[in-house]
Amino acid sequence: MNCLVINLVDDLILTAIALGYVFACVLIPKYLVHKELISKFAARKAVHLLAGLAIFITPYLTIPWFAVLIAVLLTIVTLKSSKQSSNPTLRDLYNSIGEEAEESKGYLQGPFHYCLSITILIATFSAVYQISALYQAKGLSLFYIPIAGILIMVISDTMAAVVGKRWGKHEIKIPWIHSRRTFEGSLTFFLTGILLCLFSFFVFGVLLPGYSIQLTVVNALILSVVTAAVGTVVEMMSPSTWDDLTVPLITTGLISIMAFGFGLIVIT
Fold first, then answer.
1. DSSP letters along 205-239, please?
2. CA 83 to mean position of chain CA atoms
3. Is-contact 220 206, C-beta < 8 A?
């Protein structure tokens, strides 16, 4: 009983820290835009780059649904943020990080997809963990898979956008996406994706697995390269307001199938 109480307290402390961190990542850029210290583009990329990193607490929660609650809360916030919102904070948030492409939608479509994809992934893998724990001594904690998919959405996509906007010279023309893609941006996505996925699979699967199923170093490397490659292709083919949804969901789904299909994750 004491162990359960200690675990619950630890979970609540981690959740409170993560929640405070996320709101700081959202509200500080909003404040800087209001003071005209940074541009809307910089504010949006800062939120995109930093807020999603709160997922790092997930492998160490005994009740991973706490992480889902944070994601659900942010999903609601981004959906309700609009020019017509009666809440001044939500209205200011839209005015601070909204894109021109979202004008017709009336809400923060990109950030909403960002939060929704995190919610779906963490909820799915939390369900796997909880359900599997009913039938065996240890639940199947595989959070390094969605973390890898989320990291490439959070960081690789941001880096690709910055590099493509500033240094991109070789445009990749894909008719249906209605947004600019460059070879330089996509290469940046792929290379940073390898490093980020390696971080996720190595740290949470090899070095500090917590409650997670362990990986071998070789399998972590294979998963990293393939995840980055799949994510790059999906991002290249997706419209800018949809890639926050398509990149993590499609990439994580395909990598999960491959990992078990080719025996890269072994359940003992």
1. III--TTBPP--HHHHHHHHHHHHHHHHHHHHHS-
2. 26
3. yes
Residues 6+ apart with CB under 8 A from 267: 140, 213
Handedness of CA 114, 117, 120, 122 (dihedral sign): negative
Q: What is the pLDDT averaged over residues 165-190?
A: 79
Confidence category of residue 208, pLDDT binned at 50, 70, 90: confident
Whether the full predicted model's pTM is greater than 0.85, yes or no, is yes
- What span, in angstroms and rounded, lies between the C-alpha atoms of 9 and 99? 40
The predicted-structure confidence for 61-79, as pLDDT tens digits, reads as follows 889 999 999 999 999 999 9
With vertex at residue 23, the alpha carbon angle to CA 21 and CA 26, rounded to the nearest 5 degrees, is: 110
Strands (E), 98-203: 171-172, 181-182
Residue 133 has pLDDT above 90, yes or no: no
Sequence-ordered strand ranges (E) for the chain: 171-172, 181-182
CA distance 200 to 186: 21
